[in-house]
Amino acid sequence: MGAYIYDLYDPHEDISYQIPQLWVEDDPGARDASVHYLDEFQVGDKLVLYYDYGDDWEFDIQIEKISRTKQGPVVARVLAGQRYGIIDDIGGVSGLKEYYSKCKKKQNLRFYEEWLGFLPNLDEFNVADINRELNE
What we know:
This protein is an alpha+beta fold. The protein has helices spanning 92-104, 110-116, 127-134; strands spanning 8-10, 15-18, 30-32, 46-51, 57-62. It has a five-stranded mixed β-sheet with strand order 3-2-1-4-5, with no helix packed on it.
């Protein structure tokens, strides 16, 4: 058993892995994500992760390495990346662009600081922080 794969889409096989309660009934390629796991994929497989349907985030994912261990479950781990990433409920790509633009112009960011509790630096990327959050 491994990590659940909710909201992943395999474009090669035209299969979407969905939470049963949110099933898209007219999708013939839909699979119950609660009975499928990351360790079903192979190195080189390319997938798409859909996140926060209101903001319409899409992430391309490629399986680069699979490590099998007998010491606990398989977990997803980020190997590399760039910049901070998304901010939940900011309004998708356009909302994130607006925030980034205001940061660069040093415009009034009080709304964001009150809403988020801090002001993320979108130019920073910390793989250790991301993997720690994935495992919480």
